Structure prediction request, 149 residues.
Amino acid sequence: MRISELFLLLLWTVGFGSTFPAAATSQPASPQTAPPLQKGIALFQQRKYAEARQELLRETLRHPSSAQGYFYLGMAEVHLGDLAAGERSLRHALELNPGSPNTLCNLGVLLLEQRKPQEALPFLEKANRLEPTNPSFAPISFEVTSRRD
Prediction:
């Protein structure tokens, strides 16, 4: 399995999980009436990444301490192909919420995608330590470890 395939699998299996419960609602927000964060998440879930990015930029400007806003902004940027911006946003989300296994793992996978396995491994290992029973984290850490040597 290619790293980009792992990234997409990881996003859908853990990207909307326990660390950011507002994103896991059963009824997504209506993009027309929701505040910027919910609107951005709804647009992201609809795969309207450019629109989501705009709403999430608005959210992070209004609420600079929104780890969830920066997480989804980073993921939208990655889907738009702006890996450098995605990395910056995910790192900022991690500064705001250092114990987020989802952010740790997604940042690690992004670094793998950028061919930075040495830099990725600590993030992936920490995500695995924080959620050792999450079946999505261990295979990625193993993949990085085997490539590192």
Remarks:
- The chain has two domains: 1-19+99-149, 20-96.
- The domain at 1-19+99-149 is CATH 1.25.40 (Serine Threonine Protein Phosphatase 5, Tetratricopeptide repeat).
